[in-house]
Structure formats: C-alpha cells, structure tokens
Amino acid sequence: MKFGIVSFPGSNCDDDAVYAATETLGLPAVKLWHKSHDLEGSDVIVLPGGFAYGDYLRAGAIARFSPIMREVAAHAQRGGPVIGICNGFQIACEAGLLPGALMRNAGLQFLSMPVTIRVENTSTRWTALCTEGQRLTMPIAHGEGRYTVDATTLERVEGEGLVVFRYVDERGEATAAANVNGSLDNIAGVRNAAGNVVGLMPHPERALDPLLGSADGRVLFESVLAAVHA
Amino acid sequence: MTATPRPGDPVITPALVAEHGLTPDEFERLRVMLGREPTFTELGVISALWSEHCSYKHSRPVLRTLPTTAPYVLQGPGENAGVISIGDGLAVAFKIESHNHPSAVEPYQGAATGVGGILRDVFTMGARPIAMLNSLRFGSLDTPRVRYLVGGVVKGIGDYGNCVGIPTVAGDVMFDAAYEGNPLVNAMCVGILREEDLIRAKAEGVGNPIIAVGARTGRDGIHGASFASEDLSDENEAKRPRVQVGDPFTEKLLLEASLELITSGHIVAIQDMGAAGLTSSSAEMAERGDVGVTIDTRKVPQREQGMTPYEILLSESQERMLVVARRGREAEVKQILTKWDLTAEVIGEVIAEPVYRVMEGDQVVAEFPGTRLVTDCPQYHPEARESDEAVVRRARDVHAVPERPEEADPAWTLQRLLESPTIASKRWITTQYDSTVRTNTVMGPGDGDAAVIRIRGTNKAIALKTDCNGRYVFLDPRIGGRIAVAEAARNVACTGARPMAITNCLNFGNPKKPDVFFQFREAVYGMGDACRALGTPVTGGNVSLYNENPQGAVYPTPTIGMVGLMDDVRHATRAPFQQEGHAIVLLGENTYELGGSEYLAWIHGVVAGAPPACDLDGEKRLINALLQAIGDGDVASAHDCSEGGLAVALAECCIGRRENPRGAQVDLSAWSDVIPLRALLFGEAQGRVVISTPRPDAVLATARAHGVSAAVIGTVRSASAGLVLTVGARTIRAATAQLIEAYHEALPRAMQRAAAEVVERDPALAGGTR
Q1: Which domain holds residue A66?
Q2: Cβ atoms of residues B146 and B301 within 8 Å
Q3: How many domains does chain A have?
Q4: For residue A211, which residues of chain B lie inside 8 Å, CB to CB?
Q5: Is A56 near chain B, with CB under 8 Å?
Q6: ipTM given for this complex
Q7: Which of B20, B53, B582, B639 is catalytic?
Q8: Considering only CB atoms, which chain A residues are within 8 Å of B569?
Q9: For each successive 10 residues of chain B (770 residues), what is the average pLDDT?
Q10: Phi first, then psi: what are they for A170, rounded to 5°?
Q11: How far apart are CA B426 and CA B328, in angstroms?
C-alpha cells in the first residue's frame, strides 16, 4: 500500500504526511506534484495542510483547479481513500469532495493549540478502528477553520451521519467553550456519503508520537491501512 | 571605464550628501577612493554600504572582542548565519536579526518582513529552517498605540511563519515605557543541514554568471533616507510607504527552490537581497570572494516601469536572492526556478578585474575600484562615558523604597506581579503562531524554559531560547550583558540541553552619544565575559542602533539567541511541577538583592539599584549540576528564577499549565532572619533554579559534587492546596484559581481592549491575509 501526498505550491505539511506514512506506518509514500496528472499508483491520497497558493483569494480556491485534483477526484469517485487535513480539508470542500466550507475563525485569530475531538462516526475508511464517542487529542493550527454549511445541507450532513469529528471538552461534551473556532455544531471533520473521503481541521499527522504530546492520530492512519487491506 | 552621470541625476550638493547620511569626511573618502566626483548612483550605493547596518562602522571594533570559536563552530560571524556542528554529520544554522524601525511604522508588514529576511539568511546557508523565535519589546499596554503595535507585530510574525510552515516555538516579550516609541522586533531562525551541504555567500570563479532569483524588483523599501523617492519619483510614488511588503507564499517557493538549487551543485554562492538589496548582496559576495563583479540593472527583472539604476540597486523588495552559478549551468538554474513558478535572470558576472561595476545597458553608471567596498568604510571609535543619571540610579538604596499598604499581604504582591505583562502568560501571543508544524516540537511555547526541537534520524534535540533583561543592562551594562547570556544558558540547561553557541541582536540608541556608546561597549564586554565563561561562542548577529526618539533611547537590549544540544531527547525537562509528593529543591542561593527587579518597576514604578550580581563561575557549576541531575533522570521539572524572583517562579511552576495545575507547600524559613521578606520573595538573584524531584537526596548530592548550594524547600501538592509559603512566623497563602486568573488572564484582558481599536485602525488586521 502506497501513500500519495499532494504537494501544492504553499503546502507545508506534506513532509509531515510523508513521515506519517513512512516512519509511523513503515509504508512507502510519494509526493505528487500539483502540475502532474499521475497518482503514481498511490492507494491512499493525502491532501496536506499548508497555504496552497498562499490561500490568496480564499483558502483552497485556487488549489482545487490544480491538474492533480482531477485525478484525486477520480480516485475518490472510485472509492479510493482520501484525507484532507487542515488546508487539505479546505481544498477538498472547495473541490466539492466534501460538503460545507471553512471560514475565518470566530475570534479572527489564527489558533495553534491542542484540542480534543470526539469520534462521531466510524463508518469511514479513516475511523473504522475508532469507537463512537472516542476522544482524540491533536493539535490545530489554522486561521480559517470555522466549519459552515447551508441549512439544507446541514440537515443532510447531520441526518446522514456525515459528521466525523466534533470539538469537545475534557468530559467529551460539545460545549461552546470547546468550540474554539466557532464551527457550526462544533463540527471538526466530515466525510462524504461513501465514507472514503474524510476532511478535518485538526492535524492527526502531528499526533503520532507521545514525545510530541499525543499519539491519538495513529488510529486514523491505522484505520485506512486496515480498510485497504480488508 | 568611468562612470558618467545619467541625464536627470540630481546635482550632488553637500545637502544631498548629508541626506544620504554621509559625513563630509566620508564623502571625501569616497572622492579619494574614486579619484573623481561620484555619480548620484555611486552616492546611493555608498550611502547604503557605509550605513551602520551594512558596515558596522561604529560597532565593529567592539564586536571584535567577542569570542567566536569552538571546535564545533563551522561558521562564525561574517556570513548570512552562523553554523555549528551537532554531530552525526549534521549542523545547525541560526541567526537573529532586528526589524525595529519598520515595525514601529507599520507593525504588521514590518514584523512579517523581519521573519522573511531571517528565514532567507538561514536557508541561504543550505539549511532547512526548522524553528523560529522572536524577542519583542513594547511600551506599556495601557496605551492604545502600544496595543495596536502588539496586535500588528504578533499577527505579522504569525501570518508569515505560519504560511511558510516553520514553527514559532519560543521567544521572550517584555513591556516597559522605555520602549514606548521604539518597539523592538527581533526574529531568530534556526535551520538544519548536512555538513556537506553548507554553502557560503562567496562569489568565486571568473566568468561565473550572477543571477537574480525570486520576486521581481519594485520601488518598495527604497533607501531609508526619506528624501529618496520624493526627489526621484512621480508625486504619487512619493507617497508610497517605505516599508517593504512581505509575501510568505513566494517565500515558501523561494525556500524550496533555493534548497533545490544548493543541493543541485549548479551554484557556488547564494545570498539574500536583504537590507540595501542588490547593492549589499553583490558587494558582500564580491568582497568575501575577493573578486570583481559587473551587474547590468537593465537585466534585473522589474515589476515597475522606468526604474532608475539607483532605485534598482537600493530597492528592498522582498523574497529575492542573488546567486552565483557555475558557468554553463544557467539553463539548469532557470529550470529549477521555473518549476517553482519563479524568475531567474542573469544580471551580471564575476570578473577578474578588481572593480565593482554597475551598467545600465552599455553605460557605466557606477564603478568602484577594489573588492573591499564594504570594509573600506571608515571605522569609528566613539567616545564612551556613562551618564551621571545612570550612576545615580544604580547607587540608589532600593531597600528604602517604602512598601505599599497592600503589600502587608505578600500574596497580593505576588498576584500583581503575575499580572505584569512581562511576567504573565504569553499564550494570547503564542496561540497565534503555529508551533507544531514539521512535527519535531517536543517542547513548545509555555512548556519549559526553552523550546526543544528533536533532530530526526537521531536521539538528539536542540533547545532554543532568546533572552535579555534590558533594565539590568540600563542599570549596569556590563552586568546586564553577562546576565543576558547567563540567563539564556540557564534556560536552555533547565530543559536538559548543554548551551552551545549564541547569536545576538544588539539593540541600542544613537552610538554618537557617549552614554549610549558606553552602554554598547560595556554590554558587549559583559556578553563576551559570559560567553567565554560558559563556553558559548558568538556565531553572528545583527546590530540595530538609533533606536531612539525625542523622549530618549530604548533600554540597551543586547538580545541573546541561545542554541543548546541534548544528546537524548527523552531527557527534555519541563518547567511546571509534575507530580504531587515530589520534593521541591532550590538550586543556587537566595540573596539580599532587589535592584532592577520587576517588583520595583511594576509595583513601585522604580527603575533603580544595582542589578543582581552575576557569578559566571557559579552559573557554569549550576549548569553542570543541572545537566547531570537531569541526565541521571532525577529531575521531574526545572524552572529558573528570573523576573519576579522566587515567589513568581514557584507560582509559575504551579499554574504554568492552566489545564493541569499543581499546588505547593514551601518553607523559606531558613532565610527569614537574613533576607528581608520582599527581597527573598521577589528579588531577582541570579543562578537559581527551582526543580521538583522524586529523589531529592540524589539531587542534593549532585549539587554538592558540583559546588552548587541546594536545599529542599517544599513539596508539590494538589492544586486544591494552592501555593503556601512559610517564612518564619509568616504564612502566605495564594489560591490556585487566583494565581491562574492573574497569570493567564492578564494579557487577553489587556488585548481585548485593543481588539476594537485595531479593527478600526487597520483593515488589514481585521480581515484579508491570514
């Protein structure tokens, strides 16, 4: 199994995603250049964090037109696993792979801190090994992470269990205080209907080693590994 | 060839020379050097190269006294950044630089471009940046202007570093009215490289092409001298702000392209076009290589019409590099830049003839003989004399300052001190910086006395910290200079790392004033004393003078950026108390000292007295004792005593982790008869560290073996116990919730007041770029 990590101009978590695959899982990983049309045989696609095209205009707005994104969309269409992390989540939403959009944080400040999220849905390639209600701690680092979606779509997102993660407090409650960026319904991550595409604002690839404060992100990568092998 | 004036060049008058910052003597030196009258372009080039920033004309003789060598120093001062070996074939490049003046005018862009510049200094050594730090000084948060500056500077630093994807992991921030009109913004960058990839900015090889790389050149940031654009440009252009504008996205592309260029082997040298842009980068590279260069300004990629050679040479447009490539590899260089959507144009070449020549097409517009344009600058040895005021301040008996009535309860004083913005939690600032990107941050902001960054592929880590108490330096520059180094070293040692080397950023006032130059000289001597004693050579840095306004100069602030090395990252040690029941041990000795303290300044508005004594030999022993105890696995937490003294250090150990606080029961009765209570609690005696340990006996034995005084002073308790200090017959109690409120809410509260003001003042801070 091979990880393909898309490098947009301005991606800055692409190396971290490579480390996640190679050092944590011991799997091959390849960086996929944004101008390329070739996924180079990747089984799993990571849209990494960063500031693709400087996030100029709007986060993810330009990156979605990169040549590689056509192949990523086709891969998702075929049911291939895709994860969008932070800027990658924004790009996946802009590209229509996931419902909703990410807006400026409610407090208008960039926020870099560890957060706790609760697993809401385990019917995805990325959370299959989680248990519902499981709490995970991992860092966030974003200025535009306030999840939003129109009322009709929200009904579908909530109704069809497309919410994968919510910001919660230490007791697991989705409180206003825990909702650091002001996301709608404390939503931290969502999936597509098929469950092969997941996007989230927190960084699971930064939570793979207790030395760095948390290894709670491992379960996402282990889930996709199990799903692909299954 | 001889340079001839261009049509439209202004006539060179004594007034014009003065506006370029050259003295009549310096201008005469230029005429002698040329053997003729200089052209306007030449005047511009020399005004930049002989500015203090490029030439160090006032500071160099003093800086030469600093120790700069150690077996592991691969590159000392004189390059874009210093480099030390950390073993395993790896090296660390690091440098600190100021962006004070631009940040005072336009805090957001001023700070952002400061980050951009220091990043480039590090990656031009062939190093991949892995961490950023910053050292900030502001006036009192009570004024809206200062709150506006804080908001803008922090956002500028965050937006730039976050976008490029380099974690901002540590720093120091202090507030004092002395910085009211002149905030200090010092940014430090640390990068990692394989030793064999080290590249220097030394032009070599006659016939090798000189290539301008990265962003195009515009009129932004031309020349500090205010007259420049007024006389030379259209009226509209004259109104353009002179502060450069940063583009972190382009910087990220330039970073990747530069590292790819360096490892490709197609180039021999690379340098940032930073201060004084193309002029200083080309002249410095030529000087290091002792070669001549010729440059054609027409070939420089420009983003504006009708730029003159003067403007092109002096533009400080951001995100540009100057590269010397191997002859015949031009196409390969361009190919790499094109991949990253950046431009690369050959603009000149290295020549055998020892001249610095600037062409505009086939016209020579500037030509200087020799290859040592920068060091041909005159050197000055200004008069140094301490001001009478400083002597009086230092001599004042601060123990005679009467206590305020509220101080009857020292817990009140403790809480007020925890609210002092200099001491209070900086979380409001640090949450705006991505500190975890690149997944190497073992200890980030607020975790310990320094940041700890692991080195992939090894068990090692580096510890990083900036530091300087300008108030100490103001009161006694020699002692203050020593303390700046000693405290930075102590901080790094508290995490378990051995202090290795420093970079420094010397922020002072006008060196032509004897009292300012006295501060400068003595502070540098003090730094040198400490660097020699602690074995931490200086590998480079930056001098920022003229930080003053009609109200006076800033506190002399020689900021230290310290790099330490830890052989085993598992020894990384945090500041907060970890576990109930652990013994609390004080390493070092309490003293009867109160001078220069935050207590006096914040509680009483008094800046006076002698700063605490600095026993460098004692600091060295303390560091060795700490490192052994940590290496033996005996230390659960370590935190040094600095601003606010022992009581504040103990409180910080209790509530530094807001989400997971501890309490403590501490008995200081051993000192109750010898030291007045407030000096014991809030005095800032140096060389002290508060540690918590499951094995106090082992720690005491280690301390004894190193000749360091040590005493068990208490026990870590649960948060519900609060902080309880017994001093003889007195018991001082502070509830955890109150300590947390004071320490963690002070800065957010102050800055919330600013939010509305900031939005009104500057739309860029309310929306737009992130």
Answers
A1: 3-229
A2: no
A3: 1
A4: 442, 454, 569-570
A5: yes
A6: 0.96
A7: B53
A8: 211
A9: 84 90 91 91 90 85 96 94 97 96 90 93 95 97 93 96 96 96 96 94 90 90 45 38 79 93 93 86 88 93 92 89 94 94 93 92 90 82 94 96 96 98 97 97 97 97 98 98 98 98 96 95 98 98 90 94 98 98 98 97 97 98 98 98 98 96 98 96 98 98 98 98 97 98 96 62 40
A10: -70, -15
A11: 52
